[in-house]
Amino acid sequence: MASTGGDCSRNDCLYTILQYSPSLVGNAVLLALFAILIPISCLLGFRYHSIVFSTTIVTGLLLEIIGYIGRVLLSLRDNGTRADYALSQLGTVLAPTTISLAIFRLMPPIVAAYGEQYRPWRPTWHNVVFYAFIIICIILQAVGAILSTVFDNSILYNFGIRLLVAGLAIHLVSLFVFVILGFRFALAVRQRKGGWDRGMPAVHDTARFKSFLFGISLSTFLLVARTIYRTIAVARDSSAIERSEVLFLVLDGALVFLATALLQILFPGKMLSTSWSDSTLHERRMTQKGAAVISRPAPIQLERSSYAPYHTRVSLQSGKTTSPNMYSPQTYQIYSPHGQSPKTISPKTSPRRSMIPPPSQRTMADQRRNMVDSEQLW
């Protein structure tokens, strides 16, 4: 039975997940490998302006380091403390979940490189769904790991194991959903090959982009294999799978390390473009679309141009004034009544000029015609 003081020997502790003597060399090697990846991820994040992606990866690596520090402490002490067990369980369970979140964030920029018509989902709910998956996984796994390692109570232990299995199962479901969406996207691209979005740079035609896709797919399947193993190992407590440290170091430690190392070798900022930041291609493309929709050509300025005293013409060309001289000269004839010969209009006269005298001139002429000479009357 576990002692109430918080320490228990490996043979006497009934409520511990770890039921074997950890290997100092194996755990120390994995601890060093995960530690090496941290500065590499930080440098790549600053170099290619992928701070969010790099921070997510570094968080997962730090959790792995915490987990293997706990395992190293367990290998150095004859009587393991519950704190060491808790560190080992928390770190090695939560780290792959955080690394999976970094992979989930890579789908929108990959889709944007080909075109929005190939997306198998709506971009508005992509991040919401996967963030919800990760948050639920982290809560269940953290609470389950603490209950199953810290408290000396069989009821809490069993309840913690159930929560831990539920968190691992939800993590596995999120990975399968991501794989299904990626498979649907690959089918859409294959069926409509040649109709890719040419408005974006032809990133998908490069060899490094294809290698990047291969690396992302391989990392995802490595995490799927690890999560399947860990779910079975935790669900079947005290089984041969749970008691084998070799399986743990290979299927849990080595697979997670390979998946993370692939993400560093095929770093998204490097493979997609050196100028693209972590804000994803989808966000950049939507920004460009928004700018294209908002921008409009400058309105045409309408100017008045007068070429006749009583006629006004509007020019539809900005900066130009319409004048009678712009028209080709033509000759017009006006036929007069009472058999008089027709009058020919000068070619210099605009055909639109009115031949009727202005009203003011006609009024004055009529007044003069109707006036009576007073001298003749007298």
UniProtKB/TrEMBL annotation:
It is a multi-pass membrane protein. Residues 317-349 have a biased composition (Polar residues). It is found in: Membrane. InterPro entries: RTA1. The keyword Metal-binding does not apply. GO terms for cellular component: fungal-type vacuole; plasma membrane. Residues 317-378 are annotated as: Disordered. The chain crosses the membrane at residues 24-46, 52-74, 86-108, 128-151, 163-187, 207-225, 246-267. Keywords: Membrane, Transmembrane, Transmembrane helix. This is Uncharacterized protein. It comes from Pestalotiopsis fici (strain W106-1 / CGMCC3.15140).
